[in-house]
Design a protein that fits this description.
Blueprint: H1 2-19, H2 33-57, H3 72-95, H4 106-128
Helix pairs in contact: 1-2, 3-4
Amino acid sequence: MEPKRKGILLVSGLVFLSFSFFEFLPAGPWLDASFSRGISGLIGLSLIYLSWFEHVFNEFGVVPAIEMWERPESTWKIVVGIGFVVLGLAWTAGNTSLGGILPEPAAMLLMLIGLLITYTGFYAFLVTDGPLKEEE
């Protein structure tokens, strides 16, 4: 059932994400179509994340506990680096001409994702090498 669920989550996430690039969604509660596009993009990214999580950790879930990581002592640096890259993409989407190509809420969604990735990496550091490390 899991491989089928991963595929369904991925495809439906890509469909919802693609809706955010077109302006045929109905206007949201404030008569603003960008709200509907943002919600569609957020749902799409959430479904893609759930598919990725199940692919990487071989279980359905949302929050990757540190115990699920293979080598958290070394991979937290990579996670923080990826978080900073996504934050840079968010800045680029909001402050350059690239923002005209992407949907309006793209910068905000990228900022949210980047912050969550960065915070997860910093938490892994605190638990494995930092002050929150449990003494044996």
